[in-house]
Amino acid sequence: MENVYRIHMGKARCAVDLGDGSERGEYVNQDYILGKLGRPHRSISLMYCYYPLDEGWPGRASVVHASPDISFAWDFPYDDYFTYKGGLGGNTDGEPFQYMREIRQHGQDVSLTLTIDPHVTDEHLIAIANDLRPFGRVFLRINHEATGNWFSFNKRCTYQEVADFFVRASRVIKEHAPNVQTIICIGGIEDLSKEEMEKEAEFAQTIPAADIWSVDKYMALHWGWPYDVAEHGGDTHSRGTVADTYEKTKRSFERFRYLNGGTPKPMTMAEFNADGDVTGPYEQADMVREFCDKLEQEQADWFSAFTFYQFRDRGRLGLEIEDPNNSEVGIAQPVLDTYKEIIHRDWFRPQMEKQEGEVQLPVTLRWTNSEDAEGLAMPLHFEKNPTFCEAVFEKDSNLMLELNGRWFYKAPGTKTVDMMAAFFEKPLDGPADMTLKIFAPPTTGENDLSAEDGLFHCDTVLHELPKVRIRFAPVEA
Fold it and tell me: DSSP strand E in 173-286: where?
C-alpha cells in the first residue's frame, strides 16, 4: 500500500491508568470515558473483593449486612467492594469480566484490585488464575494498603499472615496464569524522618515476590465519607503537601529497591488524587497539576505510572461527581479538564515509532498489550480545517483509531466513524499532513488461548483500510 507504513506503540515515560468504579462509585462505560478524555489509558482499574467463605457471600456487604450501626465504610464483615463472581464455583459471565472485555476491546489493559480472604485455599487461587488467563496482560493488586488496619483481611489476620498470603497468592496465581503481573501495595515510607517503611519486618518478603511496587497516596483525603462531613478541625480527614507526597513516594521506591537487593522494579501509585471534600474543587485540580508537573520537570524515570482515583465518584474524588438525582449522570469537576490536559502531554502518552517493511493487504496486526502493539499509519492531507472527516469501513473489525491526537473506537459492526472531534479542540490553521493511526485490540476482549502464544498475544487480520471522506465546505453553501 503506497505511503502506508507500520508503526509500533510503546511505553509512555509515565503511564496513566484510571480507576473506574469502587465502593464509592459505579463503573462507567469506556465509550463515554473515551469521549470525555480523548484518549485511552494504559489500564483501567477495577476494585472487587473475594470472601467466598463468609456468610452472605456473594452478596455485596453493604446489602446483605446492612445495619444502622455502621459508621465507617469498612465496618462491614467483609469489604464493601463489588463481589468477584469468578473463583472456585463461580463463572466469568458476570462481574468483573464483562467490564474487562470492554476495557480490552478499547485498547486498554485491566488493573484488578482484589481483596481476598487470606484463609482461602490454593484451589481458590488457581481458579482465579484460570479466570484471568484469557485477558492478556493483567495487573493484579492483591490485598492493597496491606499495612493499614481498615480492610477485613487485616482484621482477621496478623500483618505477618497478610504478608505471607501475598507471597503465596502471587506465586500460585502466576504459576497458573503467567500473563498476570502482581502488585504489592503497602504504606511504604509514611514518615520522612524514618529510614524504614511501616511494617517492614513483615512485608520485606513481598517486595521481591511482586512484579510491581505501589503506594496509595492521597494529597488530601476525607476517609470519614459518607458518614460525616469534613469541616475545619475534624479528625476524619487530612491534607498534606505535593512536595511531601512526592518525596514519600520516591523514598518508598528507594527503600523497596534496597529490600530487593538494589534491583529496581516498576514503581506506581495505584491510587492518586486530592480529595475535593478537603481542598474544594479548584485546589484539587491545582494539586494534581503540581504533582504531575513535578514528575515531568524532574524527568522522574524511577516512577512508571499512576492511577487516578477515579472517573466518577459519589463523593469528591472523581473527575466527575455522580449526580445525586440520577446515578447515570456525571457532573464534570475542574480537575477533569486539568487531568485531560496532563494525559495529552508527551511525557504521559505512549510513544509511537515508525517500523520498516512494506504493507500489503491483508495485513496481520499483533496486539500484545497497551504498551506493545503493532499498527498502521495512513497518511492524510488536509487543505485546511475540515468540515467533514470520517472513516468508512466495509468489513467488521474492532479497532482503535488516532488522528490529530484524538482517539476513536470502532466496534465490530460499526461502519462509519466520525472523526471531526479531532479538530474541535485543535483546529487546523492551514494546510497540514498527518496520519490516521490504526490498531487492532482483541475483538472479543479476550485472547484466543488455542493460538500459538495466545496467552500473551492477539493477532488480527486487517483486510482493508478505511475509505476516508474529507470535505472542506458544507454540502450546500
Answer: 180-185, 212-222, 237-239, 267-274
3-state secondary structure of 261: coil
Could you give the C-alpha distances from 227 to 69, 270, 315, 351, 462, in angstroms and in order?
Answer: 11, 25, 11, 44, 53
Question: What is the rounded distance in angstroms from the CA atom of residue 49 to the CA atom of residue 85?
Answer: 9
Does the model's pTM come out above 0.90?
yes
Rounded CA separation 405/402 (Å): 6
CA angle (142, 146, 147) in 5-degree steps? 165
Q: Read off the pLDDT of each residue in 293-311 and give the average, rounded to a whole number.
A: 97
Euclidean distance between CA atoms 44 and 139, whole angstroms: 10
CA-to-CA dists, residue 6 to 270, 360, 438, angstroms: 33, 11, 10
**H or E segment to which residue 8 belongs:** strand 5-9
Q: For the segment 6-30, what is each residue's pLDDT rounded down to a tens digit?
A: 999 999 999 999 999 999 999 999 9
Residue 421: enclosing H or E segment and its boundaries? Answer: helix 421-424
Residue 356 confidence class, pLDDT cut points 50, 70, 90: confident
DSSP state for residue 393 in the 8-state scheme: -
Whole-angstrom Cα distance, residue 402 to residue 409? 9
Q: What's the angle, vertex CA 16, arms to CA 11 and CA 21, rounded to 5?
A: 135
Number of helices (H), then strands (E), in the chain? 12, 24
Return d(Cα 358, Cα 477) in angstroms, integer.
42
> 177-208, pLDDT tens digit by residue?
999 999 999 999 999 999 999 999 999 999 99
Residue reference for cell 482484621: 155
DSSP for 59-125, written as a single string: S-HHHHT--TT--STT-SSS--SEEP--STT--SSSTTHHHHHHHHHTT-EEEEEEEE-TT--HHHH
The single-letter code of the amino acid at 31 is D
Q: How far apart are the first and last CA of the chain?
A: 35
Average pLDDT, the chain: 96
With contact defined as beta carbons under 8 Å apart, do 34 and 106 qualify? Answer: yes
Cis bond before residue 226 (omega within 30° of 0): yes
In 3D space, the residue among 174, 175, 148, 144 whose CA is nearest the CA of residue 159 turns out to be 148
Three cell numbers written together for 336: 477533569
| Burial (0-12, 13-18, 19+ Cβ within 10 Å), 230 | buried
Residue 401 binned pLDDT confidence (cut-offs 50, 70, 90): very high
Question: Measured between alpha carbons, how far is 190 from 254 in angstroms, rounded to an integer?
Answer: 13
**pLDDT band at 1; cut points 50, 70, 90:** low
Cα 173–Cα 119–Cα 133 angle in degrees, nearest 5: 20
